[in-house]
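Bug #77: duplicate submission created two jobs. Keeping one. Sequence:
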Amino acid sequence: MTTTGVILGKFMPPHEGHVALVRTASYLVDRLTIILSASDKDPISPSVRKNWMESLFPEAVVIVANNGTEPLPADSPDWGPIIRGFHPEAIDRVIGSEGYIVDLARALNAQHFILDPMWMAFPANSDEVREDPFGHWKSIPDYVRPYFQKRLTLIGPESTGKSYMADVLAAKFGGPYVPEYGRPYEKYRTTGDYRAEELHFIVDGHVAHRKTLSLKAGPILFEDTDPLLTAVWAEMLLGRSLPDLEARIELPDHYLLLDANAPWEEDPLRYYGTQEQRQKFFTKIKTKLDAFGASYTLISGNWAEREAQAIAVVKEMLKTPKMHGGADAQK
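Kept job's structure:
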């Protein structure tokens, strides 16, 4: 016989306590339905939360119950008929971590399972996570982290310390960081003049890598180059811009623009080694940043000075959580 179960919650956002709750529920039932309580006033939109829950728990059925302008309290007796409307089949078990599920289970003619009601295993709640996500980073599941994460991208001409700086910052503040995809692409490509499509391949590889590593990174995702810098590479290599590539640019929260006045280190994968070429490259990057209205800090000086400037920027970024506009404005 198939055992069915229901979990009710806002999951705004889901945290590791929720993950433990749902995983435990999966041992208690054969078919689990997650009812996501929502309202028009929620600081995180129901669609975002539904996507999180479906990504975290692909075997469960996730249903959004939007109650309009006002949120419906979890202990409201209205939840019984609402859940019945979504789940007309018999419900065997109601799982949760708070006492209100006793009455809910009774209304659904089901058995209640109250798990970790004192939150001893995972002492976190969604309000605290939302208010201070960086302070509760370990409580945020992988799929949820990019929503709260800030992205800091290092760009500049060749041999200005981008990779070195990304590694230093990730080691100090938590990594991994997103490495440049253009270098391995250059190392293994067929020799000859670059084609426009190759710059798109580089963007494809870089963005895919970024999306993967963002799930494991810290509150700040450090990134060595990005599609904006690839767009500048297109101008340098092809002598023209690529509007279709530039349409793919997603600005990070902030850039560190490393100036061209760093010692040149020979590398067979590098192209533009004269100071005149490096300055031209730098000017094109700065022009592109300004054209896109990007937020950036100029990093200059010797290596120790550059490192100190970069660390200061990161510390400033960590003072405030990432803000979301529109339906997901932080409240």
